[in-house]
Design brief:
The protein is an all-alpha fold. 83% of the residues lie in helices and 0% in strands.
């Protein structure tokens, strides 16, 4: 390794695990409330999250800045990587290649999703209570729904496989047996978390979120007339 690349990769690994874990878990639980509680349940979950003290500071310092470093440096690593699946078709070589590919997809997907949701709230174009209707409008479009499914699968894979690699690189899972057990564990996590996200996307496509969006638009129209 040249220069400080060893330490840069360690920091890159650490700053991926912590904020990406927080981002994935918080989004999974919030979005799955759409499955369990419908439009009102999702609205309540969003209100709870956004009612947390100093939320904006926590997000910027604890999630967005670390994720930005992880994403940008990850793109640099992906650019430098020598993907050799054509020559060595072992499972971990494929996992290595997919980790790099999914990282690029995740970076683009998260930036796009945040622009469509949080940034629109910040710009004043929508309110937090409108996020369910916003998601309904997005995923009701079959093309965007397909892109969201690809983005979700890539993001969760990047998270789960990245956790496996993190445990190895930091000397937590040492030896073939520990790494094999870790592989099984994170595969189960990948399946469960992906399933919860996809179920949430299906819920957002439901009529309840469409009707909630129409009701909110009617209220805004009446308020403007008044």
């Amino acid at each position: 390794m040249k220069g400080n690349s060893y330490y840069s990769r360690k920091i890159h690994s650490l700053l991926g695990v912590i904020p990406l874990s927080m981002f994935i878990i918080s989004h999974m639980l919030t979005n799955f409330s759409a499955v369990e509680g419908g439009a009102q349940g999702f609205k309540a979950a969003v209100s709870f999250i956004n009612g947390l003290p100093i939320l904006i500071v926590l997000e910027i310092v604890g999630i967005w800045l670390p994720l930005l470093f992880h994403g940008v440096y990850g793109l640099y690593i992906a650019y430098q990587s020598d993907i050799n699946t054509g020559q060595f078709k072992y499972g971990r070589n494929w996992a290595f290649a997919l980790q790099r590919i999914s990282g690029v997809i995740t970076f683009i997907f998260v930036a796009w999703h945040v622009y469509q949701t949080r940034i629109q709230v910040f710009l004043g174009n929508i309110e937090y209570g409108d996020l369910g209707a916003t998601m309904n409008a997005i995923v009701s479009n079959n093309f965007f729904f397909l892109l969201y499914m690809i983005g979700v699968v890539a993001s969760v894979f990047h998270f789960a496989n990245g956790m496996w690699a993190f445990l190895v690189s930091w000397g937590i899972t040492v030896g073939p047996r520990a790494q094999r057990i870790s592989s099984y564990f994170w595969m189960v996590v990948f399946v469960i978390v992906t399933g919860m996200f996809l179920a949430s996307l299906m819920a957002f496509r439901g009529d309840e979120f469409k009707e909630a969006g129409a009701a909110a638009e009617t209220l805004r129209t009446l308020a403007n007339i008044g």
